[in-house]
Amino acid sequence: MEEKVIVCKDLTKRFGDFYAVNKISFEVNKGEIFGFLGANGAGKTTAMRILCGLSYPTSGEATVAGFNVYKQTEAIKKNIGYMSQKFSLYENLTVLENIEFFGGVYGVPSAEIRKRSDNLVQKLGLTAEAKKLVGSLPLGWKQKLAFSVAIFHQPRIVFLDEPTGGVDPVTRRQFWDMIYEAAATGITIFVTTHYMDEAEYCNRVTIMVDGKVEALDSPANLKAQFKANNMDEVFYQLARGAKRSGD
Hints:
single chain; alpha/beta; Rossmann fold; 6-stranded mixed beta sheet; 8 helices; globular
């Protein structure tokens, strides 16, 4: 039996009469690259905030790394990493200062931070830039560094919210190579994106439409099910079907 590191059952988040997340259910296995896909406004980020212990659900059940999203949010935060497209690094700090700061926030011992910092800047090819302000780096390098910082404390799960937004296709591919490497060490990757081609890189994907899970399977199985050539076609069929059912 594969270890389930995320379990959701009928998870719901309501704002007044609006359902941002509407009774979603799924499970994520240890070491899996799990894509959480959908257009902007589909409910992806709202659901992720609940799973990260940053927001409480209105109803339903969920556990992350074995901890309850209602009662054990602090324990959840200690066992996860998080990276957002909008904010992940302090641009007025240097590369090394960012690594050291987040290492401390995540509770990594000082001696271990120094050791891992040296290894990380070498691995990323940032030795010459280690004492430069992060704000001076190209966006692609910032994203690679932000991901590396998010897994610096070796979390059980890392949540990536639109991590490749705004970067060029080559950098996106390199970023996904880093994701594969992290997953190979046993870290579970939970990634939201509106780039349907990135679904091809995931072991399984959930497709959200208007706050609901409309599909959940491997990319290959979904393409076969919908007789589609790519994930864009799968999403189009799902979105069109959801719109028709709501008319």
